[in-house]
Protein backbone atom coordinates (compact mmCIF):
# COMPACT_ATOMS: atom_id res chain seq x y z
CA UNK A 1 0.00 0.00 0.00
CA UNK A 2 1.20 3.49 -0.79
CA UNK A 3 2.44 5.38 2.23
CA UNK A 4 1.95 8.87 0.77
CA UNK A 5 -1.23 9.53 2.74
CA UNK A 6 0.26 8.09 5.89
CA UNK A 7 3.35 10.25 5.46
CA UNK A 8 1.22 13.36 4.99
CA UNK A 9 -0.73 12.67 8.17
CA UNK A 10 2.47 11.71 9.99
CA UNK A 11 3.80 15.19 9.27
CA UNK A 12 1.60 16.86 11.86
CA UNK A 13 4.62 18.16 13.71
CA UNK A 14 8.14 19.10 12.88
CA UNK A 15 9.13 15.53 13.74
CA UNK A 16 7.54 12.72 11.75
CA UNK A 17 7.13 10.60 14.87
CA UNK A 18 4.26 12.76 16.14
CA UNK A 19 1.52 11.12 14.03
CA UNK A 20 2.38 7.49 14.89
CA UNK A 21 3.09 8.56 18.48
CA UNK A 22 -0.38 10.04 18.85
CA UNK A 23 -1.92 6.99 17.16
CA UNK A 24 -0.11 4.60 19.53
CA UNK A 25 -1.08 6.68 22.55
CA UNK A 26 -4.72 6.96 21.50
CA UNK A 27 -4.81 3.22 20.77
CA UNK A 28 -3.49 2.34 24.23
CA UNK A 29 -5.93 4.71 25.93
CA UNK A 30 -8.86 3.41 23.85
CA UNK A 31 -8.02 -0.15 24.87
CA UNK A 32 -7.90 0.92 28.52
CA UNK A 33 -11.23 2.76 28.26
CA UNK A 34 -12.83 -0.22 26.50
CA UNK A 35 -11.57 -2.68 29.13
CA UNK A 36 -12.79 -0.41 31.92
CA UNK A 37 -16.25 -0.08 30.31
CA UNK A 38 -16.60 -3.86 29.88
CA UNK A 39 -15.56 -4.48 33.49
CA UNK A 40 -17.94 -1.71 34.54
CA UNK A 41 -20.83 -3.57 32.93
CA UNK A 42 -19.76 -6.78 34.72
CA UNK A 43 -19.54 -4.87 38.01
CA UNK A 44 -23.04 -3.41 37.54
CA UNK A 45 -24.44 -6.86 36.71
CA UNK A 46 -22.95 -8.30 39.91
CA UNK A 47 -24.22 -5.41 42.03
CA UNK A 48 -27.69 -5.92 40.55
CA UNK A 49 -27.51 -9.67 41.23
CA UNK A 50 -26.23 -9.42 44.82
CA UNK A 51 -27.95 -6.24 46.03
CA UNK A 52 -30.76 -5.46 43.57
CA UNK A 53 -32.20 -1.96 43.79
CA UNK A 54 -33.11 -1.79 47.47
CA UNK A 55 -31.89 -0.02 50.59
CA UNK A 56 -28.29 -1.28 50.49
CA UNK A 57 -27.79 -0.45 46.81
CA UNK A 58 -29.30 3.03 47.25
CA UNK A 59 -27.02 3.70 50.21
CA UNK A 60 -23.89 2.61 48.34
CA UNK A 61 -24.63 4.55 45.16
CA UNK A 62 -25.09 7.78 47.13
CA UNK A 63 -21.99 7.08 49.23
CA UNK A 64 -19.85 6.36 46.17
CA UNK A 65 -21.24 9.28 44.13
CA UNK A 66 -19.67 11.81 46.52
CA UNK A 67 -15.95 10.83 46.23
CA UNK A 68 -16.50 9.81 42.60
CA UNK A 69 -17.73 13.31 41.74
CA UNK A 70 -14.75 14.83 43.55
CA UNK A 71 -12.48 12.52 41.54
CA UNK A 72 -14.03 13.61 38.22
CA UNK A 73 -13.86 17.29 39.15
CA UNK A 74 -10.57 17.44 40.97
CA UNK A 75 -8.39 14.38 40.50
CA UNK A 76 -8.61 13.23 36.89
CA UNK A 77 -9.88 16.43 35.28
CA UNK A 78 -8.56 19.73 36.59
CA UNK A 79 -5.28 18.25 37.85
CA UNK A 80 -4.25 16.78 34.48
CA UNK A 81 -5.31 19.95 32.67
CA UNK A 82 -3.10 22.13 34.86
CA UNK A 83 -0.20 19.79 35.67
CA UNK A 84 0.70 18.26 32.28
CA UNK A 85 1.44 21.56 30.43
CA UNK A 86 3.57 22.96 33.28
CA UNK A 87 5.40 19.65 33.86
CA UNK A 88 6.08 19.31 30.11
CA UNK A 89 7.35 22.88 29.90
CA UNK A 90 9.70 22.25 32.85
CA UNK A 91 10.86 18.98 31.27
CA UNK A 92 11.67 20.68 27.95
CA UNK A 93 13.32 23.80 29.36
CA UNK A 94 14.99 22.67 32.60
CA UNK A 95 15.47 18.93 32.21
CA UNK A 96 14.20 15.76 33.82
CA UNK A 97 15.71 16.32 37.27
CA UNK A 98 13.91 19.65 37.74
CA UNK A 99 10.69 18.15 36.32
CA UNK A 100 10.83 15.33 38.87
CA UNK A 101 11.40 17.84 41.66
CA UNK A 102 8.24 19.68 40.54
CA UNK A 103 6.36 16.36 40.46
CA UNK A 104 7.45 15.54 44.03
CA UNK A 105 6.44 19.00 45.27
CA UNK A 106 3.08 18.71 43.52
CA UNK A 107 2.54 15.22 44.94
CA UNK A 108 3.40 16.34 48.48
CA UNK A 109 1.05 19.31 48.31
CA UNK A 110 -1.70 17.24 46.71
CA UNK A 111 -1.41 14.48 49.31
CA UNK A 112 -1.55 16.97 52.19
CA UNK A 113 -4.59 18.70 50.72
CA UNK A 114 -6.44 15.45 49.98
CA UNK A 115 -5.76 14.09 53.48
CA UNK A 116 -7.47 17.20 54.85
CA UNK A 117 -10.36 16.81 52.38
CA UNK A 118 -10.75 13.12 53.28
CA UNK A 119 -10.71 13.84 57.02
CA UNK A 120 -13.26 16.64 56.57
CA UNK A 121 -15.45 14.33 54.49
CA UNK A 122 -15.37 11.60 57.11
CA UNK A 123 -16.28 14.04 59.90
CA UNK A 124 -18.97 15.84 57.88
CA UNK A 125 -20.43 12.65 56.34
CA UNK A 126 -23.88 13.05 57.99
CA UNK A 127 -24.26 16.60 56.65
CA UNK A 128 -22.99 15.63 53.19
CA UNK A 129 -25.42 12.72 52.93
CA UNK A 130 -28.25 14.98 54.11
CA UNK A 131 -27.48 17.37 51.22
CA UNK A 132 -26.97 14.63 48.62
CA UNK A 133 -30.00 12.51 49.56
CA UNK A 134 -32.41 14.56 51.71
CA UNK A 135 -35.15 11.97 51.21
CA UNK A 136 -33.14 9.40 53.19
CA UNK A 137 -33.95 11.11 56.50
CA UNK A 138 -37.37 9.45 56.35
CA UNK A 139 -35.57 6.08 56.58
CA UNK A 140 -33.15 6.23 59.57
CA UNK A 141 -31.54 2.85 58.82
CA UNK A 142 -30.82 3.79 55.21
CA UNK A 143 -29.45 7.18 56.32
CA UNK A 144 -27.19 5.55 58.91
CA UNK A 145 -25.90 2.98 56.41
CA UNK A 146 -25.20 5.68 53.82
CA UNK A 147 -23.18 7.71 56.34
CA UNK A 148 -21.24 4.57 57.32
CA UNK A 149 -20.41 3.72 53.69
CA UNK A 150 -19.53 7.34 52.89
CA UNK A 151 -16.95 7.34 55.67
CA UNK A 152 -15.34 4.20 54.26
CA UNK A 153 -15.26 5.42 50.64
CA UNK A 154 -14.21 9.03 51.20
CA UNK A 155 -10.43 8.36 51.46
CA UNK A 156 -10.68 7.02 47.89
CA UNK A 157 -10.23 10.62 46.73
CA UNK A 158 -6.71 10.60 48.25
CA UNK A 159 -5.57 7.49 46.37
CA UNK A 160 -7.21 8.36 43.06
CA UNK A 161 -5.89 11.94 43.25
CA UNK A 162 -2.32 10.64 43.55
CA UNK A 163 -3.09 8.12 40.79
CA UNK A 164 -4.22 11.02 38.57
CA UNK A 165 -0.92 12.80 39.23
CA UNK A 166 0.99 9.63 38.28
CA UNK A 167 -1.10 9.44 35.11
CA UNK A 168 -0.19 13.03 34.20
CA UNK A 169 3.52 12.37 34.77
CA UNK A 170 3.57 9.18 32.71
CA UNK A 171 1.51 10.66 29.89
CA UNK A 172 3.94 13.59 29.73
CA UNK A 173 6.78 11.06 29.44
CA UNK A 174 4.86 9.27 26.64
CA UNK A 175 4.09 6.17 28.71
CA UNK A 176 0.39 5.44 28.23
CA UNK A 177 -0.36 1.77 28.91
CA UNK A 178 -0.29 1.70 32.72
CA UNK A 179 -2.27 4.97 33.11
CA UNK A 180 -4.79 3.81 30.49
CA UNK A 181 -5.50 0.55 32.31
CA UNK A 182 -5.34 2.01 35.84
CA UNK A 183 -9.14 2.65 36.02
CA UNK A 184 -9.76 -1.07 35.45
CA UNK A 185 -8.28 -1.69 38.90
CA UNK A 186 -11.31 -0.04 40.52
CA UNK A 187 -13.76 -2.32 38.72
CA UNK A 188 -11.63 -5.41 39.35
CA UNK A 189 -11.39 -4.59 43.06
CA UNK A 190 -15.14 -4.02 43.35
CA UNK A 191 -15.90 -7.25 41.45
CA UNK A 192 -13.51 -9.22 43.68
CA UNK A 193 -14.90 -7.64 46.85
CA UNK A 194 -18.48 -8.53 45.93
CA UNK A 195 -17.56 -12.13 45.11
CA UNK A 196 -15.24 -12.85 48.04
CA UNK A 197 -15.93 -10.34 50.83
CA UNK A 198 -19.70 -9.84 50.78
CA UNK A 199 -20.43 -13.30 52.31
CA UNK A 200 -18.09 -12.46 55.20
CA UNK A 201 -19.35 -8.98 56.12
CA UNK A 202 -22.46 -7.57 57.73
CA UNK A 203 -23.97 -5.65 56.07
CA UNK A 204 -22.68 -7.33 52.87
CA UNK A 205 -22.72 -4.01 50.96
CA UNK A 206 -19.68 -2.99 53.05
CA UNK A 207 -17.66 -5.17 50.67
CA UNK A 208 -18.29 -2.69 47.84
CA UNK A 209 -17.09 0.25 49.92
CA UNK A 210 -13.91 -1.66 50.79
CA UNK A 211 -13.56 -2.53 47.11
CA UNK A 212 -13.61 1.18 46.25
CA UNK A 213 -10.69 1.81 48.62
CA UNK A 214 -8.73 -1.16 47.29
CA UNK A 215 -9.44 0.02 43.75
CA UNK A 216 -8.01 3.46 44.51
CA UNK A 217 -4.85 1.89 45.91
CA UNK A 218 -4.65 -0.37 42.85
CA UNK A 219 -4.99 2.59 40.46
CA UNK A 220 -2.02 4.17 42.19
CA UNK A 221 0.08 1.01 42.54
CA UNK A 222 -0.17 -0.19 38.92
CA UNK A 223 1.62 2.96 37.74
CA UNK A 224 4.52 2.88 40.23
CA UNK A 225 6.75 0.44 38.24
CA UNK A 226 6.68 2.72 35.18
CA UNK A 227 7.43 5.73 37.37
CA UNK A 228 10.45 3.88 38.78
CA UNK A 229 11.67 3.01 35.28
CA UNK A 230 11.57 6.69 34.37
CA UNK A 231 13.69 7.60 37.39
CA UNK A 232 10.90 8.85 39.62
CA UNK A 233 10.72 8.46 43.38
CA UNK A 234 7.94 8.64 45.96
CA UNK A 235 9.91 10.89 48.31
CA UNK A 236 8.33 14.09 49.60
CA UNK A 237 9.35 17.62 48.63
CA UNK A 238 7.94 20.61 50.47
CA UNK A 239 9.07 23.32 48.01
CA UNK A 240 5.54 24.67 47.96
CA UNK A 241 6.63 28.20 47.06
CA UNK A 242 7.92 27.05 43.69
CA UNK A 243 6.51 29.43 41.00
CA UNK A 244 5.73 26.43 38.77
CA UNK A 245 3.64 24.84 41.52
CA UNK A 246 1.80 28.11 42.05
CA UNK A 247 1.13 28.29 38.31
CA UNK A 248 -0.40 24.80 38.45
CA UNK A 249 -2.69 26.03 41.23
CA UNK A 250 -3.72 29.12 39.26
CA UNK A 251 -4.48 27.04 36.17
CA UNK A 252 -6.38 24.51 38.24
CA UNK A 253 -9.00 26.90 39.64
CA UNK A 254 -10.66 27.92 36.34
CA UNK A 255 -10.24 24.36 35.06
CA UNK A 256 -12.07 23.10 38.13
CA UNK A 257 -14.85 25.63 37.63
CA UNK A 258 -15.17 24.60 33.98
CA UNK A 259 -15.57 20.95 34.97
CA UNK A 260 -18.14 21.87 37.64
CA UNK A 261 -20.12 23.73 34.98
CA UNK A 262 -19.88 20.74 32.63
CA UNK A 263 -21.09 18.40 35.38
CA UNK A 264 -23.97 20.80 36.01
CA UNK A 265 -25.10 20.21 32.43
CA UNK A 266 -26.00 16.60 33.16
CA UNK A 267 -27.66 17.44 36.47
CA UNK A 268 -29.77 20.13 34.78
CA UNK A 269 -31.00 17.66 32.15
CA UNK A 270 -31.81 15.12 34.87
CA UNK A 271 -33.55 17.78 36.96
CA UNK A 272 -35.74 18.90 34.04
CA UNK A 273 -36.46 15.29 33.04
CA UNK A 274 -37.90 14.70 36.50
CA UNK A 275 -40.79 17.03 35.57
CA UNK A 276 -41.68 14.95 32.50
CA UNK A 277 -43.56 11.66 32.32
CA UNK A 278 -42.49 8.70 34.40
CA UNK A 279 -39.32 7.03 33.13
CA UNK A 280 -37.89 10.12 31.45
CA UNK A 281 -34.86 10.25 33.75
CA UNK A 282 -34.11 6.60 32.97
CA UNK A 283 -34.58 7.13 29.21
CA UNK A 284 -32.00 9.91 29.36
CA UNK A 285 -29.63 7.84 31.53
CA UNK A 286 -29.60 4.80 29.24
CA UNK A 287 -29.11 7.00 26.17
CA UNK A 288 -26.16 8.76 27.82
CA UNK A 289 -24.64 5.36 28.66
CA UNK A 290 -24.60 4.40 24.97
CA UNK A 291 -23.30 7.75 23.73
CA UNK A 292 -20.52 7.69 26.33
CA UNK A 293 -18.97 4.64 24.62
CA UNK A 294 -17.69 6.45 21.48
CA UNK A 295 -16.94 9.57 23.52
CA UNK A 296 -14.67 7.53 25.78
CA UNK A 297 -13.08 5.40 23.07
CA UNK A 298 -12.38 8.33 20.71
CA UNK A 299 -12.75 11.67 22.53
CA UNK A 300 -11.13 10.82 25.85
CA UNK A 301 -8.43 8.77 24.12
CA UNK A 302 -7.44 11.44 21.59
CA UNK A 303 -7.85 14.35 24.03
CA UNK A 304 -5.59 12.65 26.58
CA UNK A 305 -3.09 11.40 24.00
CA UNK A 306 -2.46 14.73 22.29
CA UNK A 307 -2.10 16.87 25.44
CA UNK A 308 1.59 16.00 26.06
CA UNK A 309 2.39 16.47 22.34
CA UNK A 310 0.61 19.82 22.27
CA UNK A 311 2.31 20.91 25.50
CA UNK A 312 5.72 20.03 24.03
CA UNK A 313 4.92 22.11 20.95
CA UNK A 314 3.99 25.10 23.10
CA UNK A 315 7.10 24.66 25.25
CA UNK A 316 9.21 24.84 22.06
CA UNK A 317 7.25 27.91 20.92
CA UNK A 318 5.84 26.15 17.85
CA UNK A 319 2.19 27.17 17.48
CA UNK A 320 2.25 25.88 13.89
CA UNK A 321 2.98 22.41 15.22
CA UNK A 322 0.18 22.74 17.77
CA UNK A 323 -2.13 23.72 14.92
CA UNK A 324 -1.12 20.71 12.83
CA UNK A 325 -1.52 18.24 15.70
CA UNK A 326 -4.96 19.63 16.53
CA UNK A 327 -6.07 19.34 12.88
CA UNK A 328 -4.70 15.79 12.75
CA UNK A 329 -6.71 14.78 15.84
CA UNK A 330 -9.87 16.48 14.54
CA UNK A 331 -9.60 14.75 11.15
CA UNK A 332 -9.09 11.32 12.71
CA UNK A 333 -11.92 11.89 15.20
CA UNK A 334 -14.35 12.97 12.48
CA UNK A 335 -13.36 10.00 10.32
CA UNK A 336 -14.41 7.72 13.19
CA UNK A 337 -17.33 9.59 14.77
CA UNK A 338 -19.33 10.63 11.69
CA UNK A 339 -20.01 6.99 10.68
CA UNK A 340 -20.59 6.13 14.36
CA UNK A 341 -23.27 8.83 14.46
CA UNK A 342 -24.97 7.34 11.41
CA UNK A 343 -24.63 3.88 12.96
CA UNK A 344 -26.13 4.96 16.29
CA UNK A 345 -29.12 6.43 14.48
CA UNK A 346 -29.66 3.44 12.15
CA UNK A 347 -29.10 0.77 14.82
CA UNK A 348 -30.66 2.68 17.74
CA UNK A 349 -33.62 0.32 18.21
CA UNK A 350 -31.45 -2.78 17.79
CA UNK A 351 -28.86 -1.50 20.28
CA UNK A 352 -31.38 -0.66 22.98
CA UNK A 353 -33.41 -3.84 22.48
CA UNK A 354 -30.41 -6.18 22.55
CA UNK A 355 -28.66 -4.48 25.47
CA UNK A 356 -31.54 -3.58 27.78
CA UNK A 357 -34.88 -5.17 26.82
CA UNK A 358 -35.45 -7.95 29.35
CA UNK A 359 -37.27 -8.38 32.64
CA UNK A 360 -38.88 -5.12 33.71
CA UNK A 361 -37.49 -3.27 30.66
CA UNK A 362 -40.42 -3.38 28.23
CA UNK A 363 -40.60 -2.83 24.42
CA UNK A 364 -42.27 0.56 24.97
CA UNK A 365 -39.29 1.61 27.11
CA UNK A 366 -36.94 0.46 24.35
CA UNK A 367 -38.74 2.69 21.85
CA UNK A 368 -38.49 5.71 24.17
CA UNK A 369 -34.77 5.18 24.82
CA UNK A 370 -34.12 4.60 21.10
CA UNK A 371 -35.80 7.88 20.13
CA UNK A 372 -33.93 9.74 22.87
CA UNK A 373 -30.70 8.18 21.61
CA UNK A 374 -31.42 9.47 18.09
CA UNK A 375 -31.34 13.11 19.21
CA UNK A 376 -28.45 12.62 21.62
CA UNK A 377 -26.36 10.93 18.90
CA UNK A 378 -26.48 14.09 16.78
CA UNK A 379 -23.90 15.63 19.10
CA UNK A 380 -21.33 12.80 19.18
CA UNK A 381 -18.92 14.49 16.73
CA UNK A 382 -19.07 17.71 18.74
CA UNK A 383 -18.64 15.99 22.13
CA UNK A 384 -15.48 14.31 20.83
CA UNK A 385 -14.22 17.47 19.10
CA UNK A 386 -14.70 19.38 22.35
CA UNK A 387 -12.26 17.08 24.16
CA UNK A 388 -9.60 17.69 21.50
CA UNK A 389 -10.03 21.47 21.38
CA UNK A 390 -10.07 21.79 25.17
CA UNK A 391 -6.74 19.92 25.29
CA UNK A 392 -5.34 22.52 22.87
CA UNK A 393 -6.34 25.33 25.24
CA UNK A 394 -4.92 23.46 28.24
CA UNK A 395 -1.59 23.02 26.44
CA UNK A 396 -1.53 26.82 26.02
CA UNK A 397 -2.00 27.01 29.82
CA UNK A 398 -5.37 28.65 29.22
CA UNK A 399 -8.06 27.08 31.41
CA UNK A 400 -10.13 30.26 31.66
CA UNK A 401 -11.43 30.28 28.05
CA UNK A 402 -12.87 26.73 28.21
CA UNK A 403 -14.49 27.64 31.54
CA UNK A 404 -16.24 30.69 30.05
CA UNK A 405 -17.32 28.75 26.96
CA UNK A 406 -18.67 25.93 29.15
CA UNK A 407 -20.78 28.47 31.04
CA UNK A 408 -22.17 29.81 27.75
CA UNK A 409 -22.95 26.25 26.58
CA UNK A 410 -24.82 25.52 29.81
CA UNK A 411 -26.90 28.64 29.17
CA UNK A 412 -27.65 27.39 25.65
CA UNK A 413 -28.59 23.99 27.07
CA UNK A 414 -30.99 25.48 29.64
CA UNK A 415 -32.63 27.76 27.06
CA UNK A 416 -33.04 25.00 24.46
CA UNK A 417 -34.19 22.48 27.08
CA UNK A 418 -36.96 24.74 28.36
CA UNK A 419 -37.95 25.57 24.78
CA UNK A 420 -38.00 21.95 23.54
CA UNK A 421 -39.04 19.83 26.54
CA UNK A 422 -42.72 20.81 26.14
CA UNK A 423 -43.32 19.71 22.55
CA UNK A 424 -40.67 16.94 22.40
CA UNK A 425 -40.55 15.74 26.04
CA UNK A 426 -37.29 13.93 26.93
CA UNK A 427 -36.26 13.91 23.26
CA UNK A 428 -36.21 17.71 23.47
CA UNK A 429 -33.72 17.53 26.36
CA UNK A 430 -31.51 15.20 24.30
CA UNK A 431 -31.66 17.55 21.31
CA UNK A 432 -30.88 20.52 23.58
CA UNK A 433 -27.78 18.70 24.84
CA UNK A 434 -26.60 18.14 21.25
CA UNK A 435 -27.25 21.79 20.35
CA UNK A 436 -25.34 22.92 23.44
CA UNK A 437 -22.41 20.72 22.40
CA UNK A 438 -22.51 22.24 18.90
CA UNK A 439 -22.38 25.75 20.40
CA UNK A 440 -19.53 24.70 22.71
CA UNK A 441 -17.56 23.29 19.76
CA UNK A 442 -18.21 26.39 17.62
CA UNK A 443 -17.05 28.81 20.32
CA UNK A 444 -13.93 26.71 21.01
CA UNK A 445 -12.99 26.68 17.30
CA UNK A 446 -13.56 30.44 17.00
CA UNK A 447 -11.46 31.28 20.05
CA UNK A 448 -8.67 28.84 19.16
CA UNK A 449 -8.42 30.31 15.65
CA UNK A 450 -7.73 33.70 17.22
CA UNK A 451 -4.85 32.15 19.18
CA UNK A 452 -3.18 29.87 16.60
CA UNK A 453 -4.59 30.80 13.20
CA UNK A 454 -6.88 28.85 10.89
CA UNK A 455 -7.67 25.24 11.79
CA UNK A 456 -7.44 23.18 8.64
CA UNK A 457 -9.52 25.33 6.34
CA UNK A 458 -9.96 23.68 2.93
CA UNK A 459 -7.99 20.60 4.04
CA UNK A 460 -10.47 19.89 6.84
CA UNK A 461 -13.49 20.59 4.63
CA UNK A 462 -12.19 18.16 1.97
CA UNK A 463 -11.77 15.47 4.64
CA UNK A 464 -15.33 16.00 5.89
CA UNK A 465 -16.68 15.85 2.33
CA UNK A 466 -14.95 12.49 1.70
CA UNK A 467 -16.11 11.14 5.06
CA UNK A 468 -19.76 12.03 4.34
CA UNK A 469 -19.40 10.65 0.79
CA UNK A 470 -18.47 7.30 2.36
CA UNK A 471 -20.78 7.43 5.39
CA UNK A 472 -24.07 8.08 3.54
CA UNK A 473 -23.91 4.90 1.37
CA UNK A 474 -22.82 2.98 4.48
CA UNK A 475 -25.90 4.28 6.32
CA UNK A 476 -28.19 3.19 3.46
CA UNK A 477 -26.56 -0.26 3.46
CA UNK A 478 -26.98 -0.57 7.25
CA UNK A 479 -30.61 0.56 7.00
CA UNK A 480 -31.23 -2.21 4.45
CA UNK A 481 -29.60 -4.80 6.75
CA UNK A 482 -31.47 -3.81 9.91
CA UNK A 483 -34.83 -3.65 8.12
CA UNK A 484 -34.30 -6.93 6.26
CA UNK A 485 -32.79 -8.87 9.18
CA UNK A 486 -33.95 -7.20 12.47
CA UNK A 487 -31.64 -8.40 15.28
CA UNK A 488 -34.41 -8.03 17.89
CA UNK A 489 -36.46 -10.75 16.16
CA UNK A 490 -33.84 -13.41 16.88
CA UNK A 491 -35.11 -15.93 19.47
CA UNK A 492 -32.13 -15.89 21.87
CA UNK A 493 -29.91 -13.21 23.36
CA UNK A 494 -26.70 -14.68 21.92
CA UNK A 495 -28.15 -14.81 18.40
CA UNK A 496 -29.35 -11.20 18.79
CA UNK A 497 -25.88 -10.08 19.82
CA UNK A 498 -24.24 -12.00 16.94
CA UNK A 499 -26.76 -10.59 14.45
CA UNK A 500 -26.28 -7.00 15.65
CA UNK A 501 -22.47 -7.31 15.76
CA UNK A 502 -22.44 -8.85 12.28
CA UNK A 503 -24.55 -6.09 10.75
CA UNK A 504 -22.55 -3.34 12.43
CA UNK A 505 -19.30 -5.01 11.39
CA UNK A 506 -20.52 -5.26 7.79
CA UNK A 507 -21.36 -1.56 7.89
CA UNK A 508 -17.89 -0.76 9.22
CA UNK A 509 -16.18 -2.75 6.47
CA UNK A 510 -18.36 -1.09 3.83
CA UNK A 511 -17.43 2.35 5.19
CA UNK A 512 -13.71 1.58 5.18
CA UNK A 513 -13.82 0.25 1.61
CA UNK A 514 -15.76 3.30 0.43
CA UNK A 515 -13.36 5.62 2.27
CA UNK A 516 -10.35 3.99 0.61
CA UNK A 517 -12.12 4.26 -2.75
CA UNK A 518 -12.67 8.03 -2.26
CA UNK A 519 -8.97 8.47 -1.46
CA UNK A 520 -9.48 9.34 2.21
CA UNK A 521 -6.08 10.03 3.76
CA UNK A 522 -7.42 9.14 7.21
CA UNK A 523 -8.52 5.69 5.99
CA UNK A 524 -5.14 4.99 4.37
CA UNK A 525 -3.31 6.25 7.44
CA UNK A 526 -5.30 4.07 9.88
CA UNK A 527 -4.99 0.98 7.66
CA UNK A 528 -1.24 1.61 7.46
CA UNK A 529 -1.01 1.90 11.25
CA UNK A 530 -3.01 -1.30 11.85
CA UNK A 531 -0.87 -3.13 9.29
CA UNK A 532 2.31 -2.08 11.12
CA UNK A 533 0.88 -3.09 14.51
CA UNK A 534 -0.13 -6.56 13.29
CA UNK A 535 3.18 -7.01 11.47
CA UNK A 536 5.11 -6.18 14.65
CA UNK A 537 2.89 -8.54 16.66
CA UNK A 538 3.55 -11.31 14.11
CA UNK A 539 7.32 -10.80 14.33
CA UNK A 540 7.18 -10.96 18.14
CA UNK A 541 5.11 -14.16 17.98
CA UNK A 542 7.76 -15.80 15.78
Number of helices: 22
Euclidean distance between termini CA atoms: 24 Å
Which sequence of SSEs, written as H and E, runs from N to C?
A: HHHHHHHHHHHHHHHHHHHHHH
The best one-word shape is globular
- How much strand content do the residues show? under 5%
**Average pLDDT, all residues:** 83
Range of helix content: over 70%
How is the quaternary structure best described?
single chain
Low-confidence stretches: 1-9, 12-17
Query: What's the Cα radius of gyration?
Result: 23 Å
How many distinct beta strands? 0
Structural class by SSE content? mainly alpha
Write the layout of secondary structure elements.
Blueprint: H1 4-10, H2 18-51, H3 55-94, H4 96-123, H5 125-132, H6 140-153, H7 156-172, H8 177-181, H9 184-196, H10 206-221, H11 224-229, H12 243-273, H13 280-315, H14 319-346, H15 348-356, H16 363-377, H17 380-395, H18 400-424, H19 426-452, H20 458-484, H21 493-517, H22 521-541
Helix pairs in contact: 1-22, 2-9, 2-13, 3-4, 3-6, 3-7, 3-12, 3-13, 4-7, 5-6, 6-10, 7-10, 9-10, 12-13, 12-18, 12-19, 13-14, 13-16, 13-17, 13-19, 14-16, 14-17, 14-20, 15-16, 15-21, 16-19, 17-19, 18-19, 20-21
Q: What is the compact description of this entry?
A:
The chain is mainly alpha-helical. It has 22 helices and no strands.
Report on the architecture of this protein.
The protein has a domain of 218 residues. α2 packs antiparallel against α13, α3 packs parallel to α13 and α14 packs antiparallel against α17. It is mostly helical. It contains 22 helices and no strands. It is globular and about 65 Å long.
Amino acid sequence: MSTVAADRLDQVGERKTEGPGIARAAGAISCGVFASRILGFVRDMLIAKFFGAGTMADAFFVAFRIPSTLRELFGEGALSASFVPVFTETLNRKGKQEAWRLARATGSFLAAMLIVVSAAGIIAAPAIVWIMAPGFHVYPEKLSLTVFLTRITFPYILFVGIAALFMGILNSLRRYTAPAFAPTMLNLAMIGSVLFLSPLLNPPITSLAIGVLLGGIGQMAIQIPDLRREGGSLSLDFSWRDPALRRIGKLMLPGLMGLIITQANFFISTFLASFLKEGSVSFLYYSFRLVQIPIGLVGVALGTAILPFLSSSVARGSLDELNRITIFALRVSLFITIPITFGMIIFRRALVTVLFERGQFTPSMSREVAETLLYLSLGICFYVGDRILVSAFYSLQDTRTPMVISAIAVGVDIFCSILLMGPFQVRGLALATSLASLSHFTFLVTCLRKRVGRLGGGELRLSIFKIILSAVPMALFCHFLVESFPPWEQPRLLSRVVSLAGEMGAGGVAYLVLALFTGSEEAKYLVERFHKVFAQAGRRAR
